[in-house]
Amino acid sequence: MTATATPSLRQPRLSPTARVRLLQVGGVVAFLIFWQVFGATRPEWYSQPTRMLDDTWHMFTVDKVLPYIEGSFWTMALKSLGALGIGLLISFIVGVTIGFLVGRYRAAQVIFDPYLAALYSVPRVAFVPMLVIWFGIASKMTVWGIGIPLSKFVIASVVMSSAVLISFSTAAGVSETMKQYDEVATALHLRGNSRGLFGTARNAVLTLVGGIIVAVVGAAVFGGIWPFMFFAMFLLVALLYQDRRMFMKILLPGSVPFIATGLRFSLQRSLVAVIVAEFLVGVPGVGFIIRDARAASDVDRLFAMAILLMFVGVVVVQVTKRIEARLSSWRPQAFGP
Amino acid sequence: MAQETEARPTPTADIRLSPIDESGPGRWRRVATSDWTIRAVSFVVFIAVWESYGRSTNTVTFASASRTWDAFYELTTSGDLWEAWRSDLGIMVTALSLATVFGLTLGFVLGRFKTPDTFFEPVFNALFMTPKVALLPIIALWLGFQFNAKVVVVLMFSFFEIFFTVRTGVKVTDAEYIDVARAYAIPDGMMLRKVIAPASLPYVITGLRLGLLHGMVGVVLAGFFLENSGIGGLISRESAEYRMPATFAAMISVMFFGVTMNAILRLLERRVAPWNIKGAT
Q: How many CB contacts within 8 angstroms connect chain A with chain B?
């Protein structure tokens, strides 16, 4: 009798990682086979993985993907991605600015928190029909005389759905950083003038004179409510300027991982916003392809689009997670969200 | 608990060395700079700006605060708003109950047993990552535009949030608790009831809150894309006919509902789990 023959001492045939991989691949394959077999009962109604693949290939190669609008699938994808990118850029600027203010200054937090919380806990897609009225459905916009084949309305929908998320996570990051590095910043004289914009006579005069000059310029060039907007913008810039060392040296680096997380969540939401906006009013883009497939009851096309969007979502999340990890790798201990 | 608090006098009474002067100028200064005063003042400013902008601009594309209020009153008295919310609440209650049952069951089972969890993980992850709006037209094709289709839409939006949060909660139940329970040879059913369920309760509450928030997105979108009823339908109908005051009023009712539900569930969350669950938004 040899001890090696006892089953309990035998090596497992598969390593744990190989077993996990095998199970995962098995799950996907089983799902696809089930769908293929089940879909065969009524293919034009339930679709099938093979039909979907065929349709995806057809969609990628055909010159005119929509019956009454010129442009291939890639043109449409580019339009949607362009609106997504510009919308995200605007949301990023707006969101990070608001987040900085709310995280850094208590007064801003007290004033803006209720509105931000209200916007946060509400389905912001509900605003889309209103944005149609405000921004129109034209799929071409003009900025400083240059025509861009994107829809202002779609961009506005993206901003609506994602700016709040970015401002929320930025504010969280800034206040967390303040908690940890406040004393260091004070010790290193990185804090701005603690008297603020109106604290000393010199500051108050500078602020008021600068603000009035800017407001007069605004009134001369634009009129309407713009003088007030210019004045407010001037105050904002002056505030950020007098506190610039704090922002650049402490708060920005400290809140980068939080901003990246906010960006990841808002990327997912923005994708939904673009599709909803394009679908609802029929702006050329990926959402329009879904709308068209829906009108034609083309289940293969609908599933193909859903799975494409899934892949886009997965890629986006993975890439942003990588970036997040890289951006926060310098930290001694991770306190990211 | 109650006895303990009774036995010890609250320490705040002794900390004050001198009584705070309740009269004098300092008191008014404190009141004037308190958070709620600032909030109230900024709210009044907000309403004033809204009203004045609404009066100066085109009444077709914007509604002032007073016109929105009138429309709100009208929608409430005519019963349109109640009607919309009643139909949506019916859908949400049905869908969220189903999502809770499925989400909790699957979350506990897959969180507890590794092999089926690994097997189903990629497919569930993929479904979770798919923008649900892309699946909405398919549901409309299969189930039509009525109650059933809407319930499935809301279910789809809320199920994954509940399921994934609960699964995480079960998975991260402290290994120490389980080891101790094992050391006492506790049977599986008791382990679930006495160890895993209480430990993952905060995750369940968070999952329910997230499920509700996403379910609201679902119910609004269902009103846009499926039958034009409910609150989403109300918004799209009113805005399609350029009745901005009514549109604003309907949207404010959505905001009010969302904020209230979120606040209630956050309170519940804080009661059940005073510590914070990270990564849950």
A: 139
